[in-house]
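# step 3/5: fold
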Amino acid sequence: MQIAMIGLGRMGANMTTRLLRGGHSVVAYDRNAQAVSECAKGGATPASSLDDVVQKLQPPRAVWIMVPAGKPTDDTIADLMQRLSSGDAIIDGGNSNYQDSMARAERCAQHGIAFIDAGTSGGIWGLENGYCLMVGGDEAAVRRLEPIFLTLAPEGGYAYVGRSGAGHFSKMVHNGIEYGMLAAYGEGFEVLEKSQFPYDLHQLAALWLHGSVVRSWLLELAEMAFRRNPTLSDIRGYVDDSGEGRWTVQAAIDENVPAPVITMSLISRLVSRQDESFSAKVIAALRNEFGGHAVKSEEARAPEAAGATR
């Protein structure tokens, strides 16, 4: 099949390569001309603009966008709607909010354009292993484009999951679960690292991959990380988030579903970004006020930060 890929970052470029390997024709576009050139070397048809993308596609056209969620995605879809025709399809494979996807589907439908929200998981490993695809939207359009999804996914890794929004909602919850799993591994390895026993964390991570009930792909990645750097000394403990955990927690609240693990894993990410917690300062001050508990002064932090023994 023929498809356009807009957004040639780590995910978009790798997906382009996997599609080309699968025998599909890909028109590749990115605002970064170098990224387009690299994909062209692999066999993609380069495009210099969205107009050029549309002109190089045969109707009914299919355009997959892999750009940041929010305004960049909205702007790209708005530009495409001005250029595409009735019967064409837009696929959003980014981590968009499912509510945004539902609204985009309605706007596209007014122009006769199918909007497909494809929750995509696999990261930088998807090129070789395949991408897990949770696809929502107009079912007839999805079925027409199934050869694309089946090429990108490993066997059993693609499913049509329902109407518009269903793809990105399931990916949102998928990432919320990921938050909790990552937090559990992080906490467990910290308990080991702080314990009285001089554990080799790489040894344990590798050990648990064989027959353990906690073995997983994430644990495989932990084993790789500890193999490269047993103490993770080159990594700062600052954990960002791209929004899906927040949206999952909000959905749980809206649906009256208790989700304490996912919620606390999100909060722990926020804590990781604080050099000094003002909340902790308030708690320390209150403990001093009601119980006379000692507080540590800011001055006392300087020797500690300089490496003084405690």
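# step 4/5: annotate
Residues 62 and 145 are 8 Å apart (CA to CA).
# step 5/5: archive (pending)
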